[in-house]
Amino acid sequence: MPDRRALVIGSWLAKGRDRPSPQRIRGLTDRWTKLFVEDRYGYRSLLDPDGMPVPLHNPRRTEVIHHFEAARGVGAETELLVYFVGHSTNRETHDLNLVLGVDDGGNDKVMSLTQLLHEARDANFARIVCILDTCHAGRTRRTFAQLLDQSFAMFATGDAYAFEANFSDALLRAFEQPIRKNDQRVDRLAGGITYARLFEEARRRLVVGNPRDSQHPVCFGDLGDTVVVEAPNVVSDRYNVFASDRTVYGRIFILLRLIRDEGRPFDALVAAARGNAAFLLKAGEAGGDGTYVSRTRLSDYVDFLRKVRWVAGRNDGLSVTPEGRDACAEERSNRALIDAVERYVLPADLTLVRLDEFVQGLLRDMIPPTPGRISDRAAMSGHVLRLDGATRIALLLLPTTGRFMKGAADAIFPAAVG
Amino acid sequence: MAKADIRVELVTGGVATAGLDLDGLRDDIQAELDKLAGRLDLPSPKPKAVPPPKGAQGIDAVLHWLMHVAVEPDMLKVYYQSFVFTLNEIAEARKRDAQAGEEGRNETFVVRVKVFGKNIALPMAKAAIKAALKDAGIS
């Protein structure tokens, strides 16, 4: 977990305003505290690299500055999350005054955003995630221009009003929710939940949840791709029960079991496959024979099984090897398949991780990752991936070994080994 | 509002556009009103705010100044004419500066002046201001 620090400021005091209420602001900062204690994101205090951040409520400006001046253990890679919820007013042409409280005369006590950023920079923070749940925050885009490659800004609104700290509520929900299946906060290419995806999830909640108080959150900055929580695509060791029998994955294991149960010549295997619905391509009309997987294709399957050393023998007497018997055990099938492909089918200098990179490269270039394209991309990187029958079968099998199997992702992502 | 009174509004609708120095615009308006008040030997009007909608976390939606005037109308017409044209130049300049800074932005503020019962929204073309002032009986 990278070194992460957080400074959370909540202010409900502003001249002539009584909302958001103190309870609302405290409720939000309490949720931040709870997140910090759960420690999913690894945020720590500025003042103490081992301590949890403590939210500030209506702080004096000197109190905020003190947090930066007394920040300890800040390195080049230390990430700062600075969050402010409350009121703000315009300052000059591209700046904001954050209202920290009111003075004895009832006037706003403010700190400019520029000063806040200066203090952070002076404290050697070079990676800044700034969350402002105030009005008009988007007018400061130019203020961030020089920090563009060192920051990510998430603002409740552009140059208009934000309402009732609704953005904070939506963003906190995005932070709070555990990772679920098909979680849209996960950026698969980045490898987990990113700041940009958290912002987008908050925006989703906001635009569908508060039609009365219309506001349009904005974000900018290059650090949006920073992974906040890793979400590796964990691959199960067990046989993938979600895979249909009619997938290449399903058929390979059915063939393996057919050979295991009755060691048989290839011709008998073809005949057995013809009677198995898993190999049916098109049903026959009015009780006629259907169309089944061709003999050539079945031969490719068997070649694959030989190549991964699960099946041995010539076509006149196929038998299952001890490794093949082991792979038939459902609790280990998937892992055995992945390992065997990497070990015996792919060239020695080509790992599955590298293969993933080729596929991701193709997707970035909007090229369908077919076996031919993958082979070309591998060759562009100096790896020879010969597309014999077994290798083609392997490339078609890999997507189904992934954990989340449904949908188009099956077709385009080979499974990452997690 | 009596006929000779003058009312000025700075209407933003709560939008603080990037590139626009709203405080500077407010100060410019205040300075012109101070000058006008000085010429008429009246106290300077102070702005009042129309607060933002409930729950909004930002600036006032409208600022307005009201100056109660009870002096000779003929003299007023000269002052008001000059005042409106000066305010127009201020509004135009602020708009121009903001648009130079933020390409393609349409400013959302309006400076609205009410003289002799006629509302004039600035910035506006000079010919249109002349026509509006004529409608108000100032020309």
What does this structure look like?
The complex is a heterodimer of chains A (418) and B (139). In chain A, strands 1, 2, 3, 4, 8, 9 and 12 form a seven-stranded mixed β-sheet that branches. In chain A, strands 5-6-7 form a three-stranded antiparallel β-sheet. In chain A, strands 10-11-13 form a three-stranded antiparallel β-sheet. Chain A has two domains: 4-230, Rossmann fold (3-Layer(aba) Sandwich); 248-412, Arc Repressor Mutant, subunit A, CATH 1.10.10. With 418 residues, chain A is α/β, with parallel strands linked by helices. Chain A starts with a strand and ends in a 6-residue tail after the last helix. In chain A, helix 8 packs across helix 13 (389-397) and helix 11 (352-364) crosses helix 12. Chain A is 37% helix and 17% strand. Mean pLDDT of chain A is 89; it is low at 403-418. Chain B is α+β, with helices and mostly antiparallel strands and 139 residues long. Chain B has one domain. Chain B is built from three helices and five strands. Chain B has a five-stranded antiparallel β-sheet, with helices on one face. In chain B, a hairpin with a 2-residue loop joins strand 4 and strand 5. In chain B, helix 1 packs antiparallel against helix 2 (73-101). The two termini of chain B are 22 Å apart. The relative contact order of chain B is 0.23. The model of chain B has no long low-confidence stretch (mean pLDDT 89). The interface between A and B is medium-sized, with 31 and 25 residues.
SSE topology:
The complex is a heterodimer of chains A (418) and B (139).
Chain A: E1 4-10, H1 22-38, E2 43-44, E3 56-57, H2 61-69, E4 79-85, E5 87-91, E6 95-102, E7 108-112, H3 113-122, E8 127-133, E9 151-155, H4 166-176, E10 186-187, E11 192-194, H5 195-209, E12 218-220, E13 227-230, H6 248-261, H7 266-274, E14 280-282, E15 291-292, H8 295-307, E16 311-312, E17 319-320, H9 322-328, H10 333-345, H11 352-364, H12 371-380, H13 389-397, H14 409-412
Parallel strand pairs in A: 1-2, 1-3, 1-4, 4-8, 8-9
Antiparallel strand pairs in A: 5-6, 6-7, 9-12, 10-11, 11-13, 14-15, 16-17
Helix pairs in contact in A: 1-4, 2-3, 4-5, 8-13, 11-12
Chain B: E1 6-11, H1 22-39, E2 48-50, E3 62-67, H2 73-101, E4 110-115, E5 118-122, H3 126-135
Antiparallel strand pairs in B: 1-3, 1-4, 2-3, 4-5
Helix pairs in contact in B: 1-2
